[in-house]
Fold histidine kinase.
Amino acid sequence: MRDHNRRRWLLDGMTALVTGIFFAVAWPTLHLTHQVPAAAQPFIAGLAAFPFALIRVNPGLGWAISAASAAGIALIIPNQPDQHLPFQVVHILALFALLFCTAVRADIRLVLIGWGASAVLFGTAMARQDGLGSAGLAWPLAMTGLVAFGLLVRWLVLSRRALVEREEENELERARRAILEEKARIARDLHDVVAHHMSMVVVQAQTAPYRVGELSPAAVAEFESIGASARSALNEIRGMLGLLRSDGQLADHAPQPTAVDLLDLLAGARRAGVTIDWTVDGPLSEVPDTVGLALYRIAQESLSNASRHAPGTAVHVGLAVRAGIVQLTVANEPGTVPATIGAPGTGIAGMQARAAAFGGTFHAAPRPDGGFEVRATLPLSAAFTLPATGPMTPTAVLA
């Protein structure tokens, strides 16, 4: 950006310098070529030089002013007896430069108008001057060659720009293809490793009552709970595999948990042996599905962390829907080892990214009694946006 501004200031400075040089040459020499009163000489010299200042901003307007002033000078102001050109050389140079830039940058209709008007202007004005003879007929050809060269430069510039854009599109396509290939590899690994083992867990849990004899009703219920949790996890893994194998667009028909499903999640954790209790304040049905999904994933990760880092301790969950917000609190009591934050892990980073994506707040820290608490507050009217730190990586999505 700095280089672009520097180049722009350099070109503007050069344009102003050339305009000043044109005016400095046109004013002192005007009385040598035309019969102009001294008081009018600066104005006539300005008509010859100052339109050049528009060559970068609007060359078509600059050409129109320069051509109109040239026609007026040729019709109104007489030449000196020994001069044959109807305009000053400075005026001719400025008009040629403006016509060339018009051919390069302006609309093609304006280019054709400029070419025709300039050819007529120079052809008639030069033919009226004694001493030029047939040379006046060469000016329309010169104008045609100048415009043709400008159109050639225009075509080359546009072709180069189109080539650069095509290369950028190809580079983006290659990057997108690499991302899709990486997502496909991750999906394949998840399927081969995680999904396979989860399927085996489901089969073992379902067949255990038939393979192992003399099971108590409590043991049978435990195996059923393990099978239900494994099937639920397997369904979510299959949904994640579908997302990873797609081009990044989430299918509208893909089932996703909502805030109402939080109660099933908590009940499943209790069936799995977690000592857990919960309170619900407010209707969970009023929580939008997108916000409910983020809340569900945060609660899921929080329960997983509590079971992993403080096994056997009681977990207290609070859900509150009020005043346009929904708040989730997951707190576990002290375990055998005092809870500490330690180095930030993927789980906490993923929960924090989910909360930030909806403009919410997230807090995770040890409690004074040695336990650990996770608290997330999300607005009910939030619209999903990517976090400021960048897009969510597959690791953060899985967290």
Remarks:
- The radius of gyration is 40 Å.
